[in-house]
Amino acid sequence: MSNLPSYVLITPARNEAEFIELTLESVVAQTVLPLKWVIVINGSTDDTEAVVRDYATNHSWIELVCMTGSSERSFAGKVLAFNAGYARVANLDFDVVASLDGDISFDADYFSFLLGKLNADPTLGLVGTPFQETSQETYDYRFVSIEHVSGACQVFRRQCFEAIGGYKPLKGGGIDHLAVISARMKGWKTRAFTDKFCLHHRQIGTAERGAIAARFRYGVKDYVFGNHPLWEICRAGYQMMRKPYIISGFALVTGYLWAMSRGLESSLSPESIRFQRREQMQRLSRFVRGNRSVVGDNVKPSSDGA
Length: 306
Fold this sequence. Notes:
- By secondary structure, the protein is α/β, with parallel strands linked by helices.
- The protein is 40% helix and 15% strand.
- It has a seven-stranded mixed sheet, with helices on both faces. The chain has a three-stranded mixed sheet with strand order 5-10-7.
- Helix 2 links the parallel strand 2 and strand 3 (62-67).
- The protein starts with 6 loop residues before the first strand and ends in an 18-residue tail after the last helix.
């Protein structure tokens, strides 16, 4: 394993005391350890700091950074915390940087597996795996491109991460999604490898809200991120077949239409929106034709990124 790329981890953490020890145990048990793992605590009001400090005391490559932040959980705050962590590793000689949530767990060769994928294909800029929630639900790759890498753990080649300018502090969320789009528009390949998965212990999108409110918020975010209306209708139809039935998809499309009626400003550039919509229509076309085997095909951007 000595020929694998070297890597660092950064974890922004706020009020993760319930689950972060599972993440800590998973990383400590890795067959290939990171050069450095910076855990940035920003405004926690629970025992997250105490849990992390105990591990940092016993493992010199774990660094705890405490920031003074507001008590409000926000995606922009997560980026600020990540950037504070990245500043701590910027002068190190590493090949790969991973953004790791503080509420997931995974097996002992999780990172060696992903590092191996990067090592085998120099055109890969961003890799990860699906996550599985404690409800046993996983991504359905008929509706989520294999090129989408979950924000629970995004593993970047350093050159790719720096080429996209890192994460952008979007208060409404979608920072991981924007990073994936930006990487592909820069000519990098992105890929989620389904051979493995990480276990997500907090139901996604419900850290501060209920499941239905979270679906509404996703609909708003889908509009702000420029999802094609036809894609959103199909996405809502699929959600209606999942618990809570009907209302989940209804909340999603309601959020999208609400954002449309308010004329909310997009978080993406016009070029990025065109790029994303083209991908969505291509995937939808393949699905309608029943060609499930091509969901992992890369869609190459044109010279202008549109």
